[in-house]
Amino acid sequence: MKVKAINSHISNYPNPIEFQPGDKLILGELDAEFEGWIRVETEDKNRGWAPVQYIEPTSRGLIGYAKCDYNACELNIDRGDVLVVLKELNQWYYVQNEEGRFGWVPVQCTSLLEEAH
Description:
By secondary structure, the chain is mostly beta strands. The chain has strands at residues 2-5, 18-19, 24-30, 37-41, 47-51, 55-57, 63-66, 70-71, 82-89, 92-97, 102-106, 110-112. The strands form three sheets. Strands 11-10-9-1-12 form a five-stranded antiparallel beta sheet, with no helix packed on it. Residues 59-115 form the SH3 domain.
């Protein structure tokens, strides 16, 4: 599936979080703007947003463990950019741009491109 950027998006997180299965995470608040995202702190003390589906919370509630690999790198986009959608999750797309770069962008910044038949 391809989408076209209808608005620009600039990441506010120059040092995105990353984790692998089994990594311990400190859980913070849920995102008020995008449902399904939670602020976490990784073992290297980096903080950022992660999908709740990728985290197994513990009974204590403030600690969780990563279920899978994740990299929170957002892709900076300009209006008119064409992107290939690789995954959709919680109102965000994980995409590849025409230069071969990968990252997350908000669905609301894009419009579906019609496929030629």
